[in-house]
């Protein structure tokens, strides 16, 4: 190879980019699993909360 330094830089850059891509993929997979949507509130939930406060 006439320019080994250039080849080495290209290989290192490709490895770094591949590592960044895999880290991004794992982060997006984790984000979806860790934060499920909160339970949907109904009018009954609000009434129960205010009823407790009223009778204290």
Helix share bin: over 70%
* SS-derived structural category: mainly alpha
Head-to-tail CA distance between termini: 83 Å
Strand content: under 5%
Query: How would you state the average pLDDT, rounded?
Result: 77
What is the rounded Rg? 27 Å
Annotation field: number of helices = 2
Assign an overall shape.
rod-shaped
Can you write the helix and strand succession as a string? HH
Count of β-strands: 0
Total separate domains: 1
Largest sheet at a glance?
none
Low-confidence stretches: none
Task: Describe the protein.
This protein is an all-alpha fold. The protein has one domain. 77% of the residues lie in helices and 0% in strands. It has two helices and no strands. The chain is rod-shaped and about 80 Å long.
List the helices and strands and how they pair.
Layout (H helix, E strand, L loop, with lengths): L3 H31 L8 H12 L2
């Amino acid at each position: 190879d006439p320019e080994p330094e250039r080849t080495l830089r290209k290989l290192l850059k490709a490895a770094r980019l591949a590592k960044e891509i895999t880290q991004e993929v794992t982060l997006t997979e984790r984000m979806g699993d860790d934060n499920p949507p909160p339970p949907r509130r109904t009018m009954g939930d609000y009434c129960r909360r205010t009823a407790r406060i009223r009778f204290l």
